[in-house]
Amino acid sequence: MPRALPRNDVRQYEDLRDEWWRPNGLFVTLHWIAAARAALIPPATREGAVLVDLACGAGLLAPHVEGYRHVGVDLVTPSLEQAREHGVTPVRADVTRVPLADGCADVVSAGEILEHVDDPAGVVAEACRLLRPGGTLVIDTINATAAARFVVVTVGERVPGGAPPGIHDPSLFVRPSVIVEAAARAGVDLTVTGLRPSARQMLRWLITRRGAVRMVPSRSTAVLYQAVGTKKKN
């Protein structure tokens, strides 16, 4: 049984290590979001192209991307061990201080991490530092709204298939303006789009617990949103 830990405590991921790849496990929604994130990643255009995956977890993005050297950054050793099994080169590090060179990445992914850190703008700046000119930044996170707190925490932590209880601290949820401004300062203009599950597929999954649920674009960014942009060339 998982330990009683404070909200957003990183040690929860050690206790939940067996959930990452368990079919319809507690992290099933992260699989759906990873597939939507991968759809924003362009095909690799050169040999040796590098994808840096910040807070990679157990490598959920890996099955959806090809042609890149996939480097995963995370603090949780059991997660990194599983990521390695899925072809990810693991780097144990804090996402605010990544031990990789400036401009080393063709793509940087920061998926479902900004709502877990005290300084989301700092993480975005670090992601932009790693990105080469012309490279692509892909982000998804949870908005700092009452709607998001209700959907993700009040309801989500009580509905089977929702977020594991205590995994989020709603005080850390992030307004789009925070990441857009941080990225712009680093030369990346972001386009923000809302993201939601397909209503029909979500209903089917809640009833049957079968099949994946496709995440689709939404006009509303009130709960979950994506952002994508290209770093300006000098």
Automatic annotation (TrEMBL):
The keyword Transferase applies. The keyword Nucleus does not apply. Keywords: Methyltransferase, S-adenosyl-L-methionine, Transferase. InterPro entries: Methyltransf_11, SAM-dependent_MTases_sf. Residues 52-139 form the Methyltransferase type domain. Gene3D superfamilies: Vaccinia Virus protein VP39. It comes from the Bacteria. This is Methyltransferase type 11 domain-containing protein. It holds the Pfam family Methyltransf_11.
